[in-house]
User: Which sequence fits this backbone?
C-alpha cells in the first residue's frame, strides 16, 4: 500500500480498523519530509521525536479501543500556531528557541481525534507577507517550480501538502495567507468565517481579520479538518455560535456572482481564463452566473493594510526580549534594551508594518487612517453582503497572477501587497472563502476563489467538490518531487 | 480631518515613530524606510476618494461586543517552572527585566 497517496480520511479509517499502523504512516511521511525539505524548505522544524512518540501512544490507545476521525493522520502546522513542547518561531529571529508551554485549541482538538503533528511549517515572519520569502529561515520553494515562490504567508503548509510531505496542513489567513499558497501550490485552502475557529494559541498579527484553516489535497479532507477544528471555545471571546457540518450537495440552481473588478486591469488574462473555465464548468452542472460590480472593492487592499498594520503594531508590542525568545541586554536602560532587541530581532517587513501601524494609530492621523479604514470596512461589508442577498457565492481569481519568481517582487513591498488584492475582501467582511485548483498557466498552478455568506462553508465545499470531480487537477503531482 | 493634502513621513517623524514603537533602526534602514513608507502612504491615499461620513466603524465585523464569562480559573494551568521556562533571564523564581527606574 502506498501510504503517501492516501487521503487523511482513508488513513484514519485504515488506522482505526487496524489495517494500518500509525508508526508506519508517520515513518513514511517523516522519510519523505526529511528527504525533500532541503529542496523545498517547507518545514522550519520536523518534529521527528514528537511524531514517533505520538504514534506509539496512539497504538496503545487504539488497543484500548480509541477511535478518532484523524487517527494516525500526520499534520503539518504553520509555525504561528502554538504546539506544546515543539519550538514555535513565527519564522522570526525574535522568537527563536521559544517552546510553547501549551497547545493552541485547534491542536488540542486535532490530537483528541488522533492526529499527529509532524512538523512546523515555514511562513513569512509573523504571517506578514504573500510569498514566504520573508522568513528568517529562508524562502520556501514551490514544488511545481523550484525557482518560484510557494505563495504566502502559509507557503510552507501549501508546499508540504503539494509535495506530499504531509497529507494535510493548517495555515492561518489574515488577508489571503491560506488561499494564496493554496492557489500557487495546487491545493485546497479554506479561510473560515470569522469566529468559526478558535484563535487561542494562534500568535496574533491582526486579530480582527485572521482565522486558522485547513490546506489539503482534496475537498473531503478540507471538510474533515474543518469539522474537527471549528466550534465554540471559551478561550476565544470573539467566536460565534456555529458548528460546521457538510454533506456534499450539487451545484444545481446555485447563483454565482462574478464581480468585474476582480478580472480587469492587473489580472493576468490567462489566470482570468482559468477561473472563467471553472465558472463555465459550474454552469454546465446546473449553476447560473451573472456579472456584477462591487465598486468599493478597489479600496479593499488599502483598507486592509491600514487595519492590519494598526493591529500589528499593538499586537507585536509584547516582544521585548524579557519573557521569551531572543534576550534583551539587561545592562541597558529599559527603553534602549527593548529598542535594541526589537530592532535586531524583527525583519524589515515586520518593522515597516509596526511603524506604519503606529503612525496610523497616532494622534493626528488616527481619524484619517485607522478610523476611516474601519468605516470603509463597514461600507465594503455592506456592499458585499448586498450581493450575497441575491447570490449564493462570489467567484474571483484567488491571485491576479501565477506564482512569481523568488526575488521578483520582494524588494518592492507594494508589488508584493498586490498578491493579496483579490483575497483581503473576505477578511474585511469576515465571510468564508476558499481557493480550489483551477488549472495551470505555463505549468504553474492557479486558483479560483469562492466566497459565500457567513457560516456557508458548506456551499463553498460543494462548489469545490464539483470542480474537483470534473477536473481532477488535485491529483496532479509536481514532477520536481515525484517519488 | 479627512481633507486631502499630502502627508509625508519626514526623518523627524520616523524617529518619533521609532521611539513610540521601540524600534532601533540603522541609518541604512532609515533611508530605505523613508522611501518605502512614503510610497505605501501614497498608495493608502486612495481612500481619500471615499466619503465615509458618520458610518458606524466596524470594530468587530459581526458586531459582537462585551462577551463575558464567569470569573473562574478554567482549563490547563501552568506551573511556575513552565511559565518561566522561556524567559531568557530569571532569578529566584522571577523573570528578570532591565532597570525601569
Assistant:
Amino acid at each position: 500500500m502506498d501510504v503517501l497517496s492516501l487521503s487523511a480520511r482513508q488513513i484514519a479509517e485504515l488506522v482505526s480498523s487496524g489495517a494500518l499502523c500509525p508508526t508506519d504512516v508517520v515513518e513514511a511521511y517523516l522519510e519523505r519530509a526529511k528527504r525533500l525539505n532541503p529542496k523545498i524548505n517547507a518545514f522550519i522544524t520536523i518534529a521527528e521525536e514528537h511524531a514517533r512518540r505520538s504514534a506509539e501512544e496512539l497504538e496503545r490507545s487504539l488497543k484500548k479501543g480509541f477511535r478518532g476521525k484523524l487517527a494516525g493522520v500526520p499534520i503539518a502546522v504553520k509555525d504561528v500556531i502554538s504546539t506544546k513542547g515543539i519550538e514555535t518561531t513565527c519564522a522570526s529571529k525574535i522568537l527563536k528557541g521559544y517552546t510553547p508551554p501549551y497547545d493552541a485549541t485547534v491542536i488540542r482538538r486535532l490530537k483528541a481525534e488522533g492526529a499527529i503533528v509532524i512538523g512546523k511549517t515555514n511562513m513569512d515572519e509573523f504571517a506578514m507577507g504573500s510569498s514566504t520569502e520573508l522568513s528568517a529561515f529562508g524562502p520556501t520553494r514551490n514544488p511545481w517550480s523550484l525557482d518560484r515562490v510557494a505563495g504566502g504567508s502559509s507557503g510552507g503548509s501549501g508546499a508540504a501538502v503539494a509535495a506530499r510531505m504531509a497529507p494535510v496542513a493548517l495555515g492561518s489567513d489574515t488577508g489571503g495567507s491560506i488561499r494564496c499558497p493554496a492557489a500557487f501550490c495546487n491545493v485546497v485552502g479554506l479561510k473560515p468565517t470569522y469566529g468559526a475557529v478558535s484563535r487561542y494559541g494562534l500568535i496574533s498579527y491582526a486579530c480582527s481579520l485572521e482565522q486558522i484553516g485547513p490546506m489539503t489535497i482534496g475537498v473531503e479532507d478540507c471538510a474533515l479538518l474543518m469539522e474537527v477544528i471549528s466550534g465554540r471555545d471559551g478561550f476565544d471571546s470573539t467566536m460565534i455560535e456555529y458548528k460546521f457540518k457538510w454533506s456534499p450537495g450539487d451545484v444545481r440552481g446555485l447563483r454565482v456572482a462574478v464581480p468585474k473588478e476582480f478580472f480587469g486591469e492587473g489580472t493576468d488574462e490567462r489566470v482570468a481564463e482559468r477561473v472563467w473555465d471553472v465558472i463555465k464548468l459550474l454552469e454546465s452542472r446546473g449553476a447560473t452566473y451573472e456579472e456584477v460590480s462591487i465598486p468599493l472593492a478597489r479600496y479593499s487592499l488599502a483598507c486592509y493594510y491600514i487595519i492590519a498594520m494598526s493591529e500589528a503594531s499593538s499586537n507585536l508590542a509584547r516582544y521585548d526580549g524579557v519573557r521569551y525568545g531572543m534576550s534583551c541586554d539587561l545592562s541597558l536602560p529599559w527603553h534602549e534594551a527593548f529598542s535594541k532587541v526589537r530592532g535586531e530581532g524583527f525583519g524589515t517587513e515586520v518593522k515597516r508594518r509596526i511603524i506604519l501601524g503606529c503612525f496610523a494609530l497616532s494622534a493626528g492621523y488616527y481619524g484619517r487612517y485607522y478610523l476611516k479604514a474601519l468605516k470603509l470596512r463597514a461600507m465594503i461589508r455592506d456592499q458585499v453582503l448586498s450581493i450575497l442577498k441575491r447570490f449564493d457565492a462570489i467567484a474571483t481569481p484567488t491571485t491576479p497572477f501565477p506564482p512569481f519568481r523568488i526575488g521578483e517582487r520582494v524588494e518592492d513591498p507594494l508589488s508584493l501587497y498586490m498578491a493579496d488584492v483579490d483575497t483581503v475582501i473576505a477578511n474585511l467582511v469576515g465571510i468564508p472563502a476558499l481557493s480550489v485548483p483551477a488549472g495551470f498557466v505555463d505549468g504553474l498552478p492557479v486558483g479560483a476563489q469562492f466566497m459565500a455568506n457567513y457560516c456557508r462553508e458548506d456551499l463553498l465545499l460543494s462548489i469545490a467538490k464539483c470542480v474537483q470531480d470534473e477536473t481532477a487537477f488535485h491529483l496532479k503531482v509536481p514532477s520536481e518531487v515525484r517519488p | 480631518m479627512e481633507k486631502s493634502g499630502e502627508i509625508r513621513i519626514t526623518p523627524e517623524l520616523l524617529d518619533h515613530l521609532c521611539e513610540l514603537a521601540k524600534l532601533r533602526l540603522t541609518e541604512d534602514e532609515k533611508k530605505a524606510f523613508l522611501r518605502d513608507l512614503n510610497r505605501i502612504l501614497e498608495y493608502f491615499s486612495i481612500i481619500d476618494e471615499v466619503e465615509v461620513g458618520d458610518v458606524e466603524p466596524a470594530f468587530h465585523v459581526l458586531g459582537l461586543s462585551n462577551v463575558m464569562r464567569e470569573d473562574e480559573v478554567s482549563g490547563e494551568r501552568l506551573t511556575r517552572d513552565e511559565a518561566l521556562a522561556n524567559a531568557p533571564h530569571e532569578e529566584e523564581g522571577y523573570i528578570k527585566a532591565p532597570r525601569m527606574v
